[in-house]
Amino acid sequence: MYPILLAIHSLIRWLVVISLFVAIVNAFIGWFKNRQFRNKDLAIQRIAVEVAQLQMLIGIILYVISPVVRYFLTHFKEAIKLREIRFFGLEHITMMLTAVILITVGSSVSKKKTNDLEKFKTVAIWYTIAFLIIFSSIPWQFSPLTSRPYFRAFF
Prior knowledge:
Layout: H1 2-32, H2 39-65, H3 67-74, H4 76-79, H5 83-112, H6 116-137
Helix pairs in contact: 1-2, 1-6, 2-5, 3-5, 5-6
Transmembrane segments: 12-32, 52-73, 85-104, 124-142
Keywords: Membrane, Transmembrane, Transmembrane helix
């Protein structure tokens, strides 16, 4: 089960990055062009939230069953000094939970705005901050923190 969930989690990260990027671009365009906030804009925003929350759910399940995290928690004094173990045991989950909370709160705050310009502005700011956190906390192949392949196999 762990390898399959890990592969799914790796695949969904692309959906998170793409949906969040689309939502951010859409929000900035709406904000700077002073567009009316339409159902399409709400749908784009909602898709980004739901994909991020799905990824978070899978990530939490992985965190609970991960052998890397198990090692981190049971050998904390030694593991905290090991870059890769610390990244997955502490840093990755902390940053990703923070980002998903920002996305969720940003979406909620924007829905309460009565002005279309404020809705776009709120989404643009909150989602951009979350995107930067997510992008910096994904274990890309080029990451100096720790690296993983761009796509994982399902076996």
